[in-house]
Amino acid sequence: MFSIDVILKYSPIPVSVQRKEKDAAQSVYEQAKSVMTANPPQLLELTCDKQPDKTIAVLSDQISAVVISQKTATASGRTPGFLATSEDEG
Q1: Could you tell me which residues are beta bridge partners of residue 18?
Q2: Residue 78: is it exposed, middle or buried by C-beta count within 10 angstroms (0-12/13-18/19+)?
Q3: How confident is the model at residue 2 (pLDDT cuts 50, 70, 90)?
Q4: Can you tell me the distance from the alpha carbon of 23 to that of 29, in angstroms, rounded to the nearest whole number?
Q5: What's the distance, CA 47 to chain centroid?
Q6: Using the 8-state DSSP alphabet, how is residue 77 labeled?
Q7: Is 14 within 8 Å of 7 (Cβ atoms)?
Q8: How far apart are CA 57 and CA 88, in angstroms?
Q9: Among positive and negative, which fits the CA dihedral 77, 80, 46, 57?
Q10: Count of CB atoms within 10 A of residue 6's CB?
């Protein structure tokens, strides 16, 4: 499963949709990237493979970033791209 996170300006929580196939996820990523530069702003509407009833719509001028990542069965609930370290007490 692949997750596409759309980070919006002035919003601390990204909106996310999932795709089962890598090519489908890459297509959503490319679509989001292309509307980010649209003038005038366009409406980007996305659906989710994991939750078929989930639909999101955002204005392209509100998107500040798009992230694509692969979800694994051993996901720990942490946001991809960030590393947490701990010190061993000895």
Answers
A1: 3
A2: exposed
A3: very high
A4: 10
A5: 12
A6: S
A7: yes
A8: 45
A9: positive
A10: 23
d(CA 41, CA 35): 8
Which tokens is 57 given?
A: 């719509």
User: How many CB atoms within 10 Å of residue 54?
Assistant: 14
Share of the chain above pLDDT 90, in %: 73
The structure's pTM equals 0.74
20-54 residue pLDDT tens: 999 999 999 999 999 998 899 999 999 999 999 99
CA gap 9, 3 in Å, rounded: 19
End-to-end CA distance of the chain: 39
